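Technical annex B. To support the medicinal chemistry partners, we prepared a structural model of the target in complex with zinc ion, based solely on the information shown next.
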Amino acid sequence: MELNLTNILSIIITIAILIVAIKITFTFDINKYLESRKKDLENKIKNYCPHAYVISVEGGVKVQSAFISPSGTTNYICERCQLVTYHIDEMTERQRVQSFAKDLKEYNKQEKKFQKLLRKAGYI
Ligand SMILES: [Zn+2]
């Protein structure tokens, strides 16, 4: 190939187009990656959320469920992680919360992981 001005120009243009194309692809992938990472993190937050909180009462602490049922809906939503549940069996939920109350160490372990994830996601 003869290296005249036209050839050099077309090589430069081709390279410029390639760079733009690579940049667009890269930006697109980065956004997709960040989005999927955020989604992963949010799922993790919901998994580690104890869906309960500890309140101090006279003579100690009490564990209370964080699920509330907003008026006008039969759904339950966790006040702490926004997890929506369509049905909660009161008995099972009470047992779940009671098991935390019996084993506060386990609760604290989960709470610590939960807080760590919240910090990672920039919520606190
Ligand atoms: Zn929760």
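Notes passed to the chemistry partners:
The CA atoms of residues 75 and 86 lie 5 Å apart.
The two ends are 62 Å apart (CA to CA).
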